[in-house]
Specification:
CATH class: Mainly Alpha
Number of strands: 0
Largest sheet: none
Oligomer: single chain
Radius of gyration: 14 Å
Distance between the termini: 21 Å
Helix content: over 70%
Number of helices: 7
Order of helices and strands: HHHHHHH
Length: 144
């Protein structure tokens, strides 16, 4: 990943954790960017799905209507579970619903990402866990 891209992502994720309005806006923009794309498995679309997967690990949409909208988008995108887009969507469904249903907070999300707690991982998406740890390390939230 490009260093500048990663720095920008770190800044966005850090601000979304504490700001519900910004988190809602990020979900809306990511849904918009990943909907009906001409090349669902293209590098640009998959970059948006990576960001979506990271934010789904950390915070569900703060509003119920946006949560329902995000779930519908994930389910529609997950229809082709063999594609990269479909696998990202399935991952987002699992992580987003887990965070929403359990009420996990930021600290618990860090514990999940660093392996202090057991999590089920899709082997095809193991790089996401690594990328999320990179983001958290850069934010100063995780120390090794």
């Amino acid at each position: 990943m490009d260093v500048e891209w990663l720095r920008g992502l770190q800044s966005i994720v850090a601000q979304c954790i504490d700001n519900a309005d910004l988190c809602s806006e990020l979900y809306c923009q990511l849904i918009k960017q990943t909907m009906d794309t001409p090349d669902p498995n293209g590098p640009c679309n998959l970059a948006y799905w990576k960001i979506m997967a990271i934010i789904c690990n950390l915070r569900p949409p703060p509003q119920k209507c946006l949560l329902a909208y995000a779930r519908a988008h994930f389910k529609r995108s997950a229809a082709d579970s063999r594609s990269d887009e479909g696998r990202f969507a399935i991952y987002c469904i699992k992580k987003n619903e887990n965070l929403y249903n359990t009420g996990q907070n930021w600290q618990l999300a860090i514990s999940l990402c660093t392996g202090k707690l057991k999590i089920e991982e899709d082997p095809g998406l193991s790089h996401l866990r690594f990328q999320l740890i990179l983001v958290l390390v850069k934010l100063g939230q995780v120390n090794f």
